[in-house]
Specification:
This protein has 4 helices and no strands. Helices cover 89% and strands 0% of the residues. The radius of gyration is 20 Å and the shape is flat.
């Protein structure tokens, strides 16, 4: 049985725990990396930060994609996710409108 299928078969709260475990490990390590760099070991600190971001991007993001359908069955998580998506959409809309106006201003200025 594949690992993905095993994860997909988990319930909502075990899925949440499965996602929280690597997140709770990686995020504090980023602070440790800053402390290490602050002590003068900037190469080691930078390497730790790079590894932490790689784990966040490759493991946590992929795991979230797998467990998201289960997490959305938890009412409080679904409400938080809906609020997050709403805010993200508004913010991206502001940037899109602003960039469109700038492009139009440049086009009219060049004529």
């Amino acid at each position: 049985m594949s690992l993905r299928r095993s994860i997909e078969r988990l319930g909502p709260y075990p899925s949440l725990f499965m996602l929280a475990l690597p997140t709770a490990t990686v995020e504090p390590l980023k602070l440790v990396a800053v402390a290490v760099a602050g002590k003068g070991h900037w190469i080691t600190g930078t390497a730790i930060i790079a590894v932490c971001y790689a784990v966040s991007l490759l493991v946590v993001e992929r795991l979230f994609v797998i467990v998201k359908p289960k997490l959305l069955t938890i009412s409080w998580f679904a409400k938080l996710w809906k609020a997050f998506v709403s805010v993200r959409t508004r913010v991206l809309g502001i940037f899109r409108v602003g960039s469109t106006e700038r492009v139009l201003d440049r086009q009219s200025a060049s004529k």
